[in-house]
Write a structure and sequence with these properties.
The chain has about 325 residues and is mainly beta. The protein contains 2 helices and 27 strands.
């Protein structure tokens, strides 16, 4: 297999693209975007797809719904998700998004430090959950989160480094979705820290479908860790229960299937991979000239879906120069057997 190495932004992103190979498939393209740079995605049980517009480029569209015929519609409406033409949308900036088992779309609005919870079946607001300032830091960067529906709890991966340059002080931000009670847990735990100075900390996080285990790691870390979801009642229990799970490359997103396979957006190799007790392997590469697989979603159709958004080519992460192609993707590849 032929490799071409390219070092970007010093040592933070050692990106490796793979040429076509007989033993590894290329992902299938589901949708392309020119109007927004997608961040993360969520999929309901009946196959509805919701996509967030990435705040790193100040996207005017915060959330949109992608229909089966490719139509893209601002969701839930312009009041909540459109800041164009001087509109002051309810959702200010978002990346993380998920759909729960009761057809609620959970949008982590890191701009307003809140969750907007929207009932997609009845198309109405369910509730808004505020994130208090006392569980945040001046550089908090609230991106990915795990929704524990069994315990009515959210676990947010606060990478910090919101200015993309400060020293990391990562932690779990834990919120009770009923009472709103919040806490900051395990700050600066070794499992959350990057491998090197200047790297990015705690970022990818997910929970299994039985709500038993939280899986997480640093963006610039080489290990997936797991901790029991039930332990988040107490910080000491969380710290005591954090365990190594499987190796991974540098990655921006993870999802776990029912067989405890953790799927990885592999930003080192421009690929989708999987980690489990047998180690790590790439299962599909990105299309030619595409880069930075970001958010993941497991569909009910036997596929893992991923957002491709070329974040490494943005001015913010490329020494002030934007080298994006302007075409971003949602792709899919089969789950492993």
């Amino acid at each position: 297999m032929k490799k071409i190495n390219k070092i970007l932004i010093g040592s933070i992103f050692a990106l490796t693209t793979y040429s076509s190979a007989n033993d590894i498939d290329v992902v299938q393209t589901v949708a392309s975007f020119n109007e927004i740079r997608p961040a993360n995605m969520a999929m309901s049980k009946d196959g509805r797809i919701f996509v967030t517009g990435h705040p790193i480029v100040n996207s005017n569209t915060k959330v949109l719904e992608l229909s089966l015929n490719g139509t893209k519609t601002i969701y839930p409406n312009k009041e909540y998700s459109d800041s164009s033409n001087g509109n002051n949308s309810v959702i200010k900036a978002t990346i993380g998004v998920t759909v729960d088992n009761k057809n609620n779309l959970w949008v982590l609005d890191m701009g307003s430090k809140q969750f907007v919870v929207w009932n997609i079946k009845e198309n109405k607001l369910n509730k808004i959950i505020k994130i208090p300032e006392n569980v945040l830091t001046p550089t908090s960067f609230l991106q990915d989160f795990a929704l524990d529906e069994k315990r009515n709890r959210i676990i947010i991966a606060d990478m910090t480094q919101g200015d993309l340059k400060s020293a990391p002080t990562p932690a779990f931000v834990v919120i009770d979705t009923i009472t709103g009670k919040s806490s900051r847990i395990a700050q600066n735990h070794p499992s959350m820290m990057p491998d090197f100075e200047g790297g990015f900390a705690l970022n990818p996080i997910t929970i299994d479908s039985n709500f038993e285990w939280i899986y997480f790691g640093a963006l610039n870390g080489k290990m997936i860790y797991k901790v029991s979801a039930s332990s988040f009642n107490d910080e000491k229990e969380v710290i005591k229960n954090i365990k190594e799970y499987a190796p991974k490359p540098y990655s921006d997103g993870i999802k776990v299937d029912k067989n405890k396979n953790v799927y990885i957006t592999d930003i080192e190799n421009q690929a989708i991979g999987v980690s489990n007790k047998n180690g790590y392997k790439i299962i599909a590469t990105l299309p030619k000239d595409q880069s930075w697989p970001d958010g993941l979603e497991i569909g009910n159709d036997g596929y893992i879906y991923a957002v491709i958004n070329q974040l490494n080519r943005t001015a913010a992460l490329n020494k002030g120069k934007d080298e994006s192609t302007g075409t971003y993707l949602i792709v899919k590849t089969p789950l492993i057997k």
